[in-house]
């Protein structure tokens, strides 16, 4: 099978839809033609010139990175390090794809990997995203209701937390009259028809709206499908920022610190005053200070993240321990996620994890 960049993008976007990225982000296809046949994929946290050289040496013509090489718009390419990466990628025919805050936002993403590495159980989203859900309502003849419901479920509708196939159904009488130019499934042109129908209501994620509506139109028996969408303000528990979980048993602070340093290969950890044993831990890959209030509210003993500023450490205020292990350190396992996802879909294709250390911060 010919594998193209489009195939890889589809795998990643099915797992972490681009609609979930933050408005400042630049996730998705950045450089190159998605239709190009691939010789290999190199997965990394950051795309640097060294990573491009590694990709070239290993015969990979696509680099999948967590961090986009640039944010916002670009008017020209110059000598800045990001411009050099873009120029070399174009010259060497290497595509660039980024999967950033959308990978942070899914419950099997960056933060779930941190929980896994720390051995935390009962993982859940720390700050769920709002306004990502819609209610789809449609009206179906009774004899077709099961088929339509199943098509909606198969397309991704009807999830409430960890429950699938969730719907509300109410029977009633629908009326319509086909006018000139119509082709009614039931009844005939010019005659008022009364049909025993089922009103079906399901929840749908906004980013799946197109495929769910396509499924509805594909199986619905009517020429004109009656439906409406209602935007909801409810939190979507399966998407959001940060996660929280628990250890099987509480650990002393010093013991837990040794484990953190070992797992993340960090020589030092910046942290506030320890408050006792550690059991419940909130995490956020990358810059997570904006979630401190959520971590406190969730009852976490520790908030493990990165990029806290000096004055922000005071906000712990004896309620929680802030443990800042570094930006690169919290996200270093992200490339594993990308490799596993792509390899699972294309088991006989060359998918490699970069061995180039891209952390710009050094410790002496």
Give a summary of the structure in a few sentences.
The protein has 364 residues and is α/β, with parallel strands linked by helices.
Commentary on this structure:
The chain is α/β, with parallel strands linked by helices and 364 residues long. The chain has three domains: 117 residues, NIF3 (NGG1p interacting factor 3)-like (Udp-n-acetylmuramoylalanyl-d-glutamate--2,6- Diaminopimelate Ligase, Chain: A, domain 1); 104 residues, Udp-n-acetylmuramoylalanyl-d-glutamate--2,6- Diaminopimelate Ligase, Chain: A, domain 1, CATH 3.40.1390; 101 residues, Alpha-Beta Plaits, CATH 3.30.70. Helices cover 29% and strands 29% of the residues. The protein is built from twelve helices and 15 strands. The strands form three sheets. The chain has a six-stranded mixed beta sheet with strand order 5-10-12-13-14-11. Helix 10 links the parallel strand 13 and strand 14. Helix 1 crosses helix 12 and helix 6 packs antiparallel against helix 7. The protein is globular. The protein starts with a helix and ends in an 11-residue tail after the last strand. 37% of the residues are buried. The model has no long low-confidence stretch (mean pLDDT 96).
